[in-house]
Task: structure prediction
Amino acid sequence: MTDEKTLEEYTVAELKEIAQGTGKIESLSAMKKADLISAIEAARDEIVETVEKDVSSEPAKEKPKKKAGKAPEKSEVTVLSLKEKMGMLKQKKDELEKGDRMGTDRLRRRINRLKKRTRIVARAAS
Result:
């Protein structure tokens, strides 16, 4: 983002987003544009210094390789198990308050996905 423009060309709102991205600057709402620019530059300098120290002091560590074992086995999906899950979700949906629109919508979508999966599993079984 900052490669395209200099910090002075950004708006205060954009500078606040950049400052939040660094995670090292506090009390952003009280800062003016000049204060934000100087704080961002100071934070960048700190980041560069710590990176340079890390690179010069420690050799590069290799990431541990993943074990080439079997993937964990999934339990066999049957129409009966899917319908049990649907029943539990329907009970939860009935227990929710009428005003909780997002919760009921979420459960309705999960139930519909399970219905689709039951059709797929039933077709595959026959």
